[in-house]
Design a protein that fits this description.
globular; 339 residues; alpha/beta; 11 helices; 37% helix
């Protein structure tokens, strides 16, 4: 296939390999007037990171359209919002939403960690609400926690929130499947590694990740997708700054619990079956694929899926790519049913 040697040749508005519907959506988004509303956390955030908050405002503004009409419809789903479960240290509560099929008690439970580089977005973003509802309609219970953003407290607080949620759900419903996109994919693998360390890995029976952000050492020449798809969907600088914000101590950035691609083959042995699902036109694809191969080397039952023509996590955009997004739900459901 055609190889792009320079990111300057194309962008998300004109890449001929990209799904036409996405190209149109990005072209329209580029014409939208700037958002004038000020992010509430700007005053407490370093000025060099203000662009990150502006990005979040833009994503939140577009989220309803990306989720598609009907994302608020609860037909076929019972929703319990903001249940409170105890944090690991017992000092605070973690808000958790639970989506359950209305017609029957499901056999399987997914714990879904939302994307946003372990620091942005939320469980209430329409894209994640729609995804949870569609999975529930497919017959699976979905638990969606609001873990602590790294902008408020860095690693490992958010990870511990995610681990606590997985253990709570497993104790309540039985062994769970972890599901995460982007930063949530990082957290899915990190929770499993922490569970292995704490000898609770039996409470996790599978892991499904979409475009997992598992690598934290930048700059690097190891992964061509960082060049070929530079700034597709979000700026490359965000990857660099996620590491700085999530792991202010450089030693932490080398921990597999912070960035799972740092794990050795030995550390990955014994993880449950998993899927590494990547998007063709995405900066993080090559790092995620590198990690997949290491999982195989460790003897993990791992599968690799590539969504052609898509940028980072576009598989969840019911409003732009309804057939693709429903296909994504079917893939996750199929994986859940297979383990």
């Amino acid at each position: 296939g055609e190889r792009v040697e320079s990111a300057k040749q194309y962008d998300v508005t004109n890449d001929p390999r990209e799904d036409t519907r996405l190209r149109v959506a990005f072209s329209e988004a580029a014409k939208a007037p700037p958002i004038e509303e000020e992010h509430p956390e700007k005053k407490s955030t370093k000025k060099e990171y203000h662009y990150i908050l502006d990005l979040e405002m833009g994503w939140k503004a577009a989220a309803g359209e990306l989720a598609g009409k009907g994302w608020e419809d609860n037909t076929g789903v019972t929703v319990k919002k903001n249940l409170e479960i105890p944090s690991e240290d017992g000092k605070f509560k973690i808000p958790v939403d639970v989506y359950t099929p209305s017609e029957h008690e499901p056999k399987d439970t997914i714990v879904h960690y939302h994307g946003g580089g372990m620091m942005l977005l939320s469980k209430d973003l329409p894209v994640y609400v729609r995804t949870a509802k569609e999975l529930a309609r497919a017959g699976v219970r979905v638990v969606l926690p609001e873990f602590t953003s790294a902008l408020k407290e860095p690693f490992p607080r958010g990870l511990h929130d995610c681990y606590s949620t997985a253990m709570w759900a497993a104790d309540k419903y039985g062994a769970v499947i972890l599901f995460g996109d982007s930063g949530g994919g990082n957290l899915s693998f990190a929770v499993a590694l922490l569970a292995k360390e704490r000898k609770t890995i039996g409470k996790i029976k599978g892991i499904y990740t979409l475009a997992p952000h598992v690598w934290g050492s930048y700059p690097t020449t190891k992964f061509p997708s960082l060049v070929n798809f530079k700034d597709y969907g979000f700026p490359y600088q965000l990857l660099v700054d996620i590491t700085k914000i999530y792991t202010p101590d450089p030693k932490d950035a080398k921990s597999p619990l912070a960035f799972p691609a740092e794990a050795t083959v030995e550390e990955l042995k014994g993880l449950p079956p998993c899927v590494v699902h990547v998007d063709e036109l995405d900066m993080v694809t090559d790092a995620a694929t590198f990690f997949y191969r290491r999982l195989l080397e460790a003897g993990v039952k791992a599968r690799h899926i590539t969504s052609g023509g898509l940028v980072h996590i576009a598989d969840l955009y019911h409003g732009v790519l309804p057939d693709v997004a429903q296909g994504m739900v079917a893939l996750v459901k199929s994986f859940v049913s297979s383990i």
